Amino acid sequence: MKKQNLSDYDPSLVPSGKGRRIGIVVAEWNREITDALAQGAIDTLHKYDVDDKDILLVHVPGSFELTTGADLLLRNKPELDAVIGVGCVIQGETRHFDFICEAVSQGLTNCALKHEKPVVFSLLTTNNYEQAQDRAGGKHGNKGVEGAITALKMIDLQKQLETK
Ligand code: DLZ
Predict the structure, then answer these.
(1) Is the CB of residue 90 below 6 angstroms from any atom belonging to ligand 1?
(2) E strands of the chain, at which residues?
(3) Quick check: CB of 63 below 6 Å from ligand 1?
(4) What residues pair up with 60 in beta bridges, in sequence order?
């Protein structure tokens, strides 16, 4: 099976981010990886004309806290159009792996439904550190880039449907 490069996307299908306001919540565990993912997201938002002042970056201790971080952002900064959750959980390092991944995927989904705003899952869940590096600016692209594109597309979809 051909592996898709996470950063392969059709630029013509990405809506402009002009005037969009986006929160990014970043886990501090595996910081080298999560910083690279967050930078990929920020660079991509800039590329699609999101103003730097419209990007709000916050950190949480670990991926488990991404849900609370996203919820705090959306409760206290209602002007945000979307939140991107950025983390990295590595299987070899934790028996918590399944619990954390399950909690974050459910938690971010619930957060999106509760606040009626897109909440993007930019969580790497890999078997080892090398696989994480490959997806944080390495040979499989950067999942933060994908997260930014997803946020812009989902905001655009919401705006289109809500104005109909
Ligand atoms: C505890 C823990 C472990 C073992 N592994 C990771 C990890 O690989 N990636 C990550 O983002 N966080 C990890 N954590 C921390 C938890 O996400 C959380 O911060 C703590 O359990 C405190 O709630």
Answers:
(1) yes
(2) 22-27, 55-60, 82-90, 119-126, 136-138, 141-142
(3) yes
(4) 27
**Ligand 1 close to Cβ of residue 92 (< 6 A):** no
Q: Tokens standing for 57?
A: 């970056």
Query: What is the full per-residue pLDDT of the chain (164 aa) written as tens digits?
Result: 455 665 677 888 899 999 999 999 999 999 999 999 999 999 999 999 999 999 999 999 999 999 999 999 999 999 999 999 999 999 975 568 999 999 999 999 999 999 999 999 999 999 999 999 999 999 999 999 999 999 999 999 999 999 86
Q: For ligand 1, atom 13, which residue shows the shortest CA distance?
A: 62
Q: Which tokens hold the place of 70?
A: 């996203």
Domains of the chain: 21-162 (3.40.50.960)
Rounded distance from Cα 96 to ligand 1 centre (Å) = 8
Q: Is 96 noted as a catalytic residue in this protein?
A: yes
Q: Are strands 22-27 and 119-126 parallel, antiparallel or unpaired?
A: unpaired
CB-CB contact of 24 with 86 (8 Å): yes
